[in-house]
């Protein structure tokens, strides 16, 4: 977990090498600690699955100063007194298949099971929000049951509609805005993961848990 320069305005902190709940929890613990105790010149922290990027203003902090400050804070990962951000569980009603779930039957064939089995397996798991990225409010959720692991499209679609529920590899997600996308589409929800008109535009935050509820 040695911080290394990523650019002349950012530093990468590698914490693990795989998609793992405990590794991701440490990523967000460190992100919270750095954000809550940041000196002038730290612009933002950007957590990913197993790493964290710290952006700084080179006019206010030199790279050695930024590295020294990060190194003094890394020990929070091993402190039992560290408090992590409160999280919430969100139920997402999903209408599987139909217009916005056109890949549902492909997933069933690929996984050698019935459509109802796909729906049952997808909706019986409590997923964790590992990180937010790609588009505003796009939450990477894991982990998908091994029996449902399906490759993404070879050629992404030009448009996937907001609210579409999809899977790819070991992950699942809800597209928050109309955007290109290469994941397999299995359903749709009326809930909006991103709405700039809300006081809190993002519905999901890292560490939250998500449950998909079939909506007939």
What are the secondary-structure elements, in order, as H or E?
EEHEEHEHHEEEEEEEE
Q: What is the percentage of strand-forming residues?
A: 25-35%
Mean pLDDT: 90
Main beta-sheet strand count, sense and barrel state? 7 strands, mixed
Q: Strand order, biggest sheet?
A: 7-6-13-5-12-9-10
- Computed over alpha carbons, the radius of gyration is 19 Å
Q: Low-confidence runs (pLDDT<50, min 5 residues)?
A: none
- Total domains: 2
Question: How would you characterize this protein structure?
Answer:
The protein is elongated and about 55 Å long. It has a 7-stranded mixed β-sheet with strand order 7-6-13-5-12-9-10. The longest helix is centred in the N-terminal third of the chain and has 16 residues, at 21-36. The protein has 216 residues and is of the alpha+beta class. The chain has 2 domains: 4-78, Gyrase A, domain 2; 89-214, Cyclophilin. It contains 4 helices and 13 strands.
Properties at a glance:
single chain, 216 residues, alpha+beta, Gyrase A, domain 2, Cyclophilin, 2 domains, seven-stranded mixed β-sheet, four-stranded antiparallel β-sheet, 4 helices, 31% strand, elongated
How would you concisely characterize the structure shown here?
By secondary structure, this protein is an alpha+beta fold. 20% of the residues lie in helices and 31% in strands.
Topology summary:
Blueprint: E1 4-7, E2 10-14, H1 21-36, E3 42-47, E4 51-56, H2 63-73, E5 89-96, H3 104-110, H4 115-123, E6 126-132, E7 139-142, E8 157-160, E9 164-168, E10 171-174, E11 179-181, E12 184-188, E13 209-214
Parallel strand pairs: 5-13
Antiparallel strand pairs: 1-2, 2-4, 3-4, 5-12, 6-7, 6-13, 8-11, 9-10, 9-12
């Amino acid at each position: 977990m040695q911080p290394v320069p990523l650019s002349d305005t950012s530093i990468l902190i590698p914490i693990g090498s795989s998609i793992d709940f405990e590794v991701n929890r440490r990523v967000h613990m460190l992100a919270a600690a750095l954000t809550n105790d940041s000196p002038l010149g730290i612009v933002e922290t950007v957590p990913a699955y197993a790493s964290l990027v710290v952006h700084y203003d080179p006019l206010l902090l030199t790279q050695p100063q930024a590295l020294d400050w990060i190194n003094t804070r890394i020990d929070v990962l091993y402190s039992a007194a560290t408090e992590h951000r409160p999280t919430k569980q969100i139920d997402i009603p999903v209408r599987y298949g139909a217009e916005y779930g056109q890949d549902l039957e492909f997933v069933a064939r690929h996984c050698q099971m019935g459509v109802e089995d796909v729906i049952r397996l997808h909706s019986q798991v409590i997923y964790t929000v590992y990180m937010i990225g790609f588009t505003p409010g796009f939450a990477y959720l894991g982990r998908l049951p091994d029996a449902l692991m399906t490759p993404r499209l070879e050629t992404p679609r030009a448009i996937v509609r907001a609210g579409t529920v999809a899977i790819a590899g070991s992950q699942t997600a809800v597209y928050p805005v109309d955007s290109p996308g290469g994941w397999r589409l299995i359903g749709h929800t009326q809930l909006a993961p991103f709405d700039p008109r809300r006081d809190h535009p993002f519905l999901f935050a890292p560490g939250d848990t998500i449950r998909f509820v079939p909506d007939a």
